């Protein structure tokens, strides 16, 4: 039955496969996104689509640094609290209507409007009165964003933001067409006729579910359209890595990152797959409001019971590294000579420290696991998490004598479950939105939208506030090292491994760019003629 299903999926992909003259590329997105509304999406799959459909004031360059996009230039005041962005002439939406500075104002205001329910709303709180507006203490017009004319956007800050330019590349700060959003607030981003975009591509169709696809086509209204060298990208939705690999080998997929774990080492060795930098970490979330995980000693016991070296070398495979801290290698540190992880050193052992794990659990009142309550570990079947779940279950049983039940959910259901906090332990992860340690730590500030753990520590909150306004690089990174140590001590999450990404690309294409933050950009892609 599995072979029949695999063959059917490949056949569906092959039905509309094109030759080189059609300038079409096929990419395995894998998961059917829950949403591709830039303000509402909080998953990597949706973000990949957004980065190709929309564009901000700035965009991520192929050197991973912000570069001019819809804004051709910008000025900043001496205190860093007033930014003036100058938009290009003749910017258009994909329906041909003029794109103005007011649309960027609307997009950012939509982010910090509590009615939107944006998971990244707190990213906008550096803007003057944005947090007050979100909390109902200020009016919409009080927020420090203005558009004095169609080509000028002014953003006034509540506090200095050292990552300002990076923020302007992020989907949360993309422009919005409120005439469309207000007419169809729940469905506008799901239909080609209402999803009007301003990026290099526009939505052609979206067929939901495994075996479906999202087709995006070149946007002739894009300001840089003359440099877009392909006509279409088909983002196929193949959740099973083996099926996707079979489709790639059959010539039906041009680019994929969902390579089956067991195949990665050999494919990398052969040169058929390439390991590219990835700023991401896999971890487990605890719901710290639920017993027994309201006790940091229990959380630390579970963390020390895990052998991360076994996970990366025997289970996950493919170049991943044991997470000996919370921030992965290559993220900038105090200077240009050492990265954050090198500076911070090993805060968590790569190998299990069973003795310490048992000591902590006994100190918490559960010697050898006696009297330990029933707890459940939740994971997503769609993300292939069963193998890791079973390995962790075994490690906790062996080291601590506790039984952890496993419970799986379909990906979209799991996202909702985790967001609601309906779990004891849940698999999670973080692809850095920017090459900066603050991004992850901010997710654990009290009441942060992505703080699924419900963790709260005033000391961490205070240090993150200090780091957010500190203009001296060394002092700021020192604050972030302090923040990491607090999180490791309290352990609201269990670091598992620093993820690497292996990609496979067919020889008929070039110029597809994998951004270390996890996005795939097609604006520089080409289909080679045979």
Question: How does this model look, in words?
Answer:
The chain has 530 residues and is an alpha+beta fold. The chain folds into three domains: 2-36 and 199-254 and 506-527, Periplasmic binding protein-like II (D-Maltodextrin-Binding Protein, domain 2, 3-Layer(aba) Sandwich); 58-181, Alpha-Beta Complex (Dipeptide-binding Protein, domain 1); 277-500, Dipeptide-binding Protein, Domain 3 (Dipeptide-binding Protein, domain 3). It is built from 17 helices and 21 strands. Strands 11, 12, 13, 14, 15, 16 and 17 form a seven-stranded mixed sheet that branches. Helix 9 (296-304) packs antiparallel against helix 12 (354-363). The protein is globular, with a radius of gyration of 23 Å. The two termini are 37 Å apart. The model is unreliable at 1-8 (pLDDT under 50).
Write the layout of secondary structure elements.
Layout: H1 2-15, E1 24-28, H2 44-53, E2 58-60, E3 66-68, E4 71-76, E5 82-87, H3 101-112, H4 130-134, E6 145-149, E7 152-156, H5 164-167, H6 178-183, E8 201-207, E9 213-218, E10 232-236, H7 241-249, E11 255-256, H8 264-270, E12 274-286, H9 296-304, H10 308-316, E13 321-322, H11 340-344, H12 354-363, E14 375-380, H13 386-400, E15 404-409, H14 411-420, E16 425-431, H15 438-441, H16 458-469, H17 473-490, E17 493-505, E18 509-510, E19 513-514, E20 520-521, E21 526-527
Parallel strand pairs: 1-10, 14-15, 14-16
Antiparallel strand pairs: 2-3, 4-5, 5-7, 6-7, 8-9, 9-10, 11-17, 12-16, 12-17, 13-17, 18-21, 19-20
């Amino acid at each position: 039955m599995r072979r029949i299903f695999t063959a059917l999926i490949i056949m569906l992909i092959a039905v509309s496969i094109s030759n080189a003259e059609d300038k079409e590329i096929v990419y395995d997105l894998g998961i059917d996104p829950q949403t591709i509304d830039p303000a509402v999406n909080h998953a990597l799959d949706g973000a990949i689509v957004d980065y190709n459909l929309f564009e901000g004031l700035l965009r991520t360059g192929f050197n991973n640094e912000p570069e001019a996009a819809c804004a051709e230039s910008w000025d900043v005041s001496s205190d860093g609290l007033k930014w003036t962005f100058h938009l290009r002439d003749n910017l258009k939406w994909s329906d041909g209507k003029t794109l103005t500075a007011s649309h960027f104002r609307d997009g950012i205001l939509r982010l910090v409007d509590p009615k939107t329910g944006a998971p990244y709303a707190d990213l906008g709180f550096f803007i003057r009165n944005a947090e007050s507006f979100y909390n109902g203490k200020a009016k919409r017009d009080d927020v420090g964003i203005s558009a004095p004319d169609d080509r000028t956007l002014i953003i006034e800050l509540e506090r200095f933001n050292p990552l300002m330019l990076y923020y302007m590349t992020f989907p949360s700060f993309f422009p919005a067409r409120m005439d469309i959003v207000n007419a169809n607030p729940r469905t506008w981003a799901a239909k080609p006729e209402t999803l009007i975009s301003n990026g290099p591509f526009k939505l052609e169709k979206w067929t939901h579910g495994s075996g479906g696809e999202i087709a995006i086509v070149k946007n002739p209204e894009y300001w840089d359209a003359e440099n877009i060298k392909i006509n279409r990208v088909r983002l196929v939705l193949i959740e099973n890595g083996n099926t996707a690999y079979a489709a790639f080998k059959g010539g039906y997929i041009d680019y994929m990152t969902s390579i089956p774990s067991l195949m990665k080492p050999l494919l990398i060795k052969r040169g058929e797959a390439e390991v590219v930098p990835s700023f991401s970490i896999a971890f487990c979330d605890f719901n710290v409001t639920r017993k027994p995980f309201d006790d940091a000693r229990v959380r630390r016991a579970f963390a020390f019971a895990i052998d991360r070296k076994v996970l990366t070398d025997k289970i996950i495979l493919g170049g991943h590294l044991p997470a000996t801290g919370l921030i992965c290698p290559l993220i900038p540190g105090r200077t240009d000579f050492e990265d954050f992880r090198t500076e911070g050193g090993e805060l968590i052992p790569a190998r299990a420290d069973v003795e310490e794990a048992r000591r902590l659990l006994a100190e918490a009142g559960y010697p050898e696991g006696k009297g330990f309550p029933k707890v459940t570990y939740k994971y997503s079947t769609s993300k292939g998490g069963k193998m890791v779940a079973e390995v962790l279950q075994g490690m906790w049983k062996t080291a601590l004598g506790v039984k952890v039940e496993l419970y799986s959910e379909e990906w979209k259901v799991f996202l909702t479950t985790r967001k609601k906090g309906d779990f004891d332990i849940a698999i999670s992860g973080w692809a850095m939105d920017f090459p900066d340690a603050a991004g992850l730590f901010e997710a654990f500030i009290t009441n942060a939208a992505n703080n699924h753990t419900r963790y709260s520590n005033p000391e961490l909150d205070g240090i993150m506030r200090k780091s957010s306004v500190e203009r001296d690089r060394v002092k700021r990174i020192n604050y972030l090292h302090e923040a990491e140590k607090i999180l490791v001590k309290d352990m609201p999450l269990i670091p598992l491994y620093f993820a690497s990404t292996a990609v496979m690309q067919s020889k008929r294409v070039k110029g597809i760019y994998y951004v270390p933050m996890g996005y795939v950009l097609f604006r520089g892609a080409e289909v080679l003629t045979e």
